[in-house]
C-alpha cells in the first residue's frame, strides 16, 4: 500500500523494568508501520507482550475458595491480585478520570466522520461507567488485568492472541466499508475513520483491534500462549502516565506468564 511508512522493528526500550524475574534473554521484536498523517502524529502507543501464559494460576479450589496456585495461598482475595487497585478505584469514583484526560483521548479518536461518543466512546469510558454502576466485568485473569490498568489510567487497551495475529502490524484509520465482528453474538463495528491496529493478511492489512472494540478473529481466549496488548495514549501532558500503565500491566501479566516485557512508541 503506497501510503505506508517503511516497516521498522520496535525494540523494547525499557527492558522488563520493575519485573525482576522476567526472562531477560528475550527482546520484544515486532514489525510495525504507522500510516503518515491521518491525525496519528499525536498517538503514543504502549506495547506489552507476554509469553507462556499460565491460565490455571488463579482460580478456585474444589471447595469454591479462591486460590493462588503459584503460592498455594487460599482465601478471600487470593485469586484476585487486582483487588486492591479495584478497591482504590471505587473509592475515587468519578474523580478517577480528569476531564482533561477524557477530552485528550476523545480528541485522539475524533477524525473524519468518527465521533467518539455514545457507543463509539473509548473502552476505558465503558469501564469507568461499569465501575460506577457496580457492574465491573470479570472475564479471565489476562483480560481483567488490562481492564484494571485501563480503568486506572483511562487509556483504552486492546489485547490480542499473538499466534492468531502474527507479528506484523499497521496502525491506520479505518476505510469506508470496513467492519468486523467484536462479540460472540455476531455484532459488528463500523471502522470508518476509527484508529485501528491491523494485522498482515497476504497483501492486505485487516483491522483487528481499536480503542473501542477488538475483533473476535484475534481475541484472547483460554489456551492462548502469547498475548500482545496495545495501550493507546494521547501525546502531550495527558500521555504522561503511559510508562506507569505499561509497567503495571507488565507486572500483572508476569504473575501468570513465563515472561512479560514492554515498549513505548
Describe the structure.
It is globular and about 45 Å long. It has a single domain (8-264), classed as Phenylalanyl-tRNA Synthetase, Chain B, domain 3. It has helices at residues 83-92, 99-109, 123-132, 141-153, 162-165, 242-254, and strands spanning 8-10, 30-34, 43-51, 58-60, 66-68, 73-74, 157-161, 168-173, 179-181, 188-190, 195-201, 204-209, 226-234, 259-264. It is built from six helices and 14 strands. Helix 4 runs antiparallel to helix 6. 23% of the residues lie in helices and 26% in strands.
List keywords for this structure.
265 residues; alpha+beta; Phenylalanyl-tRNA Synthetase, Chain B, domain 3; five-stranded mixed β-sheet; four-stranded antiparallel β-sheet; globular; disordered N terminus
Please give a quick description of this structure.
The protein contains six helices and 14 strands. It is α+β, with helices and mostly antiparallel strands and 265 residues long. The longest helix has 13 residues, at 141-153.
Discrete helix count = 6
Number of domains: 1
Distance between the termini: 22 Å
- Low-pLDDT windows of residues: 1-27
What would you say the CATH architecture is? 3-Layer(bba) Sandwich
Give the CATH superfamily: Phenylalanyl-trna Synthetase, Chain B, domain 3
Largest sheet: 5 strands, mixed
Succession of helices and strands = EEEEEEHHHHEHEEEEEEHE
Strand order of the largest sheet: 1-2-8-11-12
Question: Approximately how much beta-strand content do the residues carry?
Answer: 25-35%
- Output the radius of gyration: 18 Å
Residue share in helix:
10-25%
Shape: globular
Under CATH, the topology is which? Phenylalanyl-tRNA Synthetase, Chain B, domain 3
Counting helices, strands and paired strands, the structural category is alpha+beta
Classified by CATH, the class is Alpha Beta
Mean pLDDT: 85
List how many beta strands DSSP finds.
14
Amino acid at each position: 500500500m503506497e501510503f505506508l511508512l517503511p516497516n521498522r522493528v520496535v525494540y523494547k526500550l525499557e527492558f522488563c523494568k520493575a519485573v525482576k524475574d522476567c526472562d531477560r534473554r528475550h527482546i520484544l521484536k515486532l514489525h510495525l508501520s504507522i500510516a503518515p498523517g491521518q491525525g496519528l502524529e499525536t498517538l503514543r502507543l504502549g506495547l506489552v507482550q507476554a509469553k507462556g501464559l499460565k491460565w490455571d494460576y488463579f482460580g478456585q479450589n474444589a471447595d469454591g475458595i479462591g486460590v493462588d496456585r503459584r503460592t498455594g495461598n487460599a482465601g478471600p482475595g487470593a485469586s484476585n491480585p487486582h483487588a486492591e487497585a479495584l478497591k482504590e478505584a471505587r473509592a475515587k469514583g468519578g474523580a478517577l478520570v480528569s476531564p482533561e484526560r477524557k477530552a485528550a483521548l476523545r480528541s485522539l479518536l475524533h477524525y473524519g466522520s468518527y465521533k467518539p461518543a455514545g457507543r463509539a466512546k473509548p473502552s476505558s469510558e465503558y469501564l469507568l461507567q461499569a465501575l460506577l454502576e457496580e457492574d465491573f466485568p470479570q472475564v479471565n485473569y489476562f483480560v481483567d488485568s488490562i481492564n484494571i490498568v485501563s480503568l486506572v489510567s483511562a487509556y483504552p487497551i486492546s489485547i490480542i492472541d499473538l499466534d492468531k495475529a502474527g507479528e506484523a502490524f499497521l496502525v491506520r484509520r479505518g476505510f469506508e466499508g470496513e467492519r468486523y465482528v467484536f462479540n460472540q453474538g455476531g455484532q459488528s463495528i463500523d471502522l470508518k475513520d476509527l484508529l485501528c491496529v491491523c494485522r498482515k493478511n497476504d497483501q492486505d492489512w485487516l483491522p483487528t483491534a481499536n480503542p473501542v472494540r477488538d475483533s473476535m478473529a484475534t481475541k484472547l481466549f483460554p489456551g492462548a500462549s502469547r498475548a500482545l496488548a496495545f495501550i493507546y495514549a494521547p501525546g502531550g501532558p495527558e500521555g504522561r502516565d503511559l510508562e506507569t500503565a505499561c509497567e503495571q500491566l507488565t507486572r500483572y501479566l508476569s504473575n501468570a506468564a513465563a515472561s512479560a516485557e514492554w515498549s513505548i512508541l
